[in-house]
């Protein structure tokens, strides 16, 4: 595959070009419509280079060729970034498709010298840019920052109802960009090209950095928790993590790359990194204004608008995990009202809940927390008389000993590292 290059038009449209080489070359263009989000300013060339590289795995995976050629000059640290992005961000894709070699393509291209300029003139005290995902995590970040006196600018990629509702409830200003995957890639997938999970959070993170820099904003503040550091399975000697681009591994990689460009690495960090999913859930219950509008299920976020659902599906791992986590914190009546029905009353959900609480095959390939968190939440439900007689609650009651063993296995989420600056750390203490 060749990463051919990129350009930005006068109306703020970024286009990155890729070609899969073979008997018949196939060319693709990914588009990010920044439009008004740039405020009429020209984006920093270094961040655009990084964005072009970060978008490339979506197209590389269609054929997973043994080599990637970069048609424009790059530095060693940029090629290292791309190598690590593929190795970590496409781990699940490679695992599901049985393609271990897809994680180690040879990356080549002309060498460039990126001159590091004077000290970064960025203002760390300017208003932060906070990506909004429509779920509980970004809500916790937003409300924590507001309570601590920050006035964040909210940010989203594409238009989704749960995101827009959460932004409206926050009462804060927001900015949106539109990202379009080349339809030819979707058509290639329909013809049998390789397909699978890609590091979307990495792409959105770099887009956020472009927007924040163009508008003179402070850091891009993510809402990725400690639990996302923990992978799903070990395969071919690798830790395969569905949430790799939300993990401390990617956060470190991107910060190191920013520093190599001459940027202050504190332009990017996750406020919630020190917290587990359980601790985030504890904080979220103090924001009831969002209860009927947040959604963590993937269904309302489908790329194809015709396949989007309006609310929680009630069966996917994300639905089951969030339901299980919030059940003891909000009570049966409230959590059932949020989801539209009691998910513990549906016996078809038994295998899904088993996977969530550590009694199944492995941690689901979804953005869910750790076994011990879900197991402890289920134990709390078992001790609440309000749930007595609910079919799955009664079934799990007979497995209490197993659940207690899982709940006793709490750890630090695989890493105690975080990059939260001191002036932001107080926002967590204030929640």
UniProtKB/TrEMBL annotation:
Pfam families listed in its UniProt record: MurL_epimerase_C (PF26298), MurL_N (PF26299)
Domain MurL C-terminal: 294-407
Catalytic reaction equation(s): UDP-N-acetyl-alpha-D-muramoyl-L-alanyl-L-glutamate + ATP + H2O = UDP-N-acetyl-alpha-D-muramoyl-L-alanyl-D-glutamate + AMP + diphosphate + H(+)
UniProt keyword annotation of Aminoacyl-tRNA synthetase present: no
MurL N-terminal domain sequence ranges: 12-271
Gene Ontology biological-process annotations: cell division; cell wall organization; peptidoglycan biosynthetic process; regulation of cell shape
MF terms in GO: racemase and epimerase activity, acting on amino acids and derivatives
Recorded family membership: Belongs to the MurL family.
Record function comment: Cell wall formation. Catalyzes epimerization of the terminal L-glutamate in UDP-N-acetyl-alpha-D-muramoyl-L-alanyl-L-glutamate.
Alphabetical list of HAMAP family matching this protein: MurL (MF_02209)
Enzyme Commission number(s): 5.1.1.23
Keyword Transmembrane helix part of the UniProt annotation: no
Alphabetized UniProt keyword annotations: Cell cycle, Cell division, Cell shape, Cell wall biogenesis/degradation, Isomerase, Peptidoglycan synthesis
GO cellular component: cytoplasm
Pathway where this protein functions: Cell wall biogenesis; peptidoglycan biosynthesis
Protein name, per record: UDP-N-acetyl-alpha-D-muramoyl-L-alanyl-L-glutamate epimerase
């Amino acid at each position: 595959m060749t990463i051919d290059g990129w350009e930005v038009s006068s109306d703020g449209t970024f286009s990155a070009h890729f070609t899969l080489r073979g008997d018949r070359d196939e060319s693709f263009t990914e588009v990010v419509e920044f439009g008004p989000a740039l405020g009429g300013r020209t984006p920093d060339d270094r961040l655009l280079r990084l964005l072009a590289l970060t978008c490339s795995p979506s197209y590389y995976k269609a054929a997973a060729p043994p080599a990637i050629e970069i048609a424009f000059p790059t530095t060693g640290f940029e090629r290292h970034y791309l190598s690590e992005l593929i190795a970590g961000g496409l781990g699940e894709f490679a695992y599901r498709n049985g393609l271990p070699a897809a994680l180690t393509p040879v990356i080549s291209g002309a060498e460039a010298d990126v001159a590091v300029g004077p000290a970064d003139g960025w203002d760390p005290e300017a208003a932060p840019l906070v990506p909004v995902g429509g779920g509980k995590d970004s809500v916790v970040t937003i409300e924590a920052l507001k309570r601590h006196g920050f006035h964040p600018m909210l940010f989203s990629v594409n238009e989704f109802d749960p995101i827009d509702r959460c932004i409206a409830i926050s009462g804060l200003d927001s900015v949106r960009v539109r990202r379009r995957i080349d339809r030819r890639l979707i058509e290639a997938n329909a013809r049998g090209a390789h397909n699978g999970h890609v590091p979307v959070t990495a792409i959105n993170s770099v887009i956020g950095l472009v927007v924040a820099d163009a508008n003179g904003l402070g850091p891009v503040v993510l809402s990725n928790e400690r639990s996302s550091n923990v992978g799903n399975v070990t395969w071919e000697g690798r830790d395969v993590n569905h949430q790799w681009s939300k993990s401390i591994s990617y956060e470190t990689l991107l910060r190191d790359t920013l520093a190599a460009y001459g940027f202050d690495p504190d332009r990017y960090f996750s406020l919630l990194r020190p917290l587990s999913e359980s601790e985030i859930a504890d904080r979220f219950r103090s924001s009831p204004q969002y209860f009927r509008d947040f959604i963590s299920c993937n269904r309302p976020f489908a790329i194809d608008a015709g396949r989007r659902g309006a609310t929680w599906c009630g069966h996917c791992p994300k639905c089951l995990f969030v339901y299980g986590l919030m059940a003891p914190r909000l009570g049966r009546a409230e959590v059932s009202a949020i989801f539209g029905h009691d998910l513990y009353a549906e016996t078809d959900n038994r295998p899904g809940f088993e996977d969530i609480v550590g009694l199944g095959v492995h941690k689901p390939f979804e953005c869910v927390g750790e076994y011990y968190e879900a197991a402890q939440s289920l134990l709390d439900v078992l001790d609440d008389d309000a749930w007595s007689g609910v079919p799955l609650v009664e079934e799990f009651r007979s497995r209490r000993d197993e659940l207690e063993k899982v709940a006793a296995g709490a750890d630090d989420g695989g890493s105690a590292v975080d990059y939260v600056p001191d002036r932001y750390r107080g926002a967590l203490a204030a929640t």
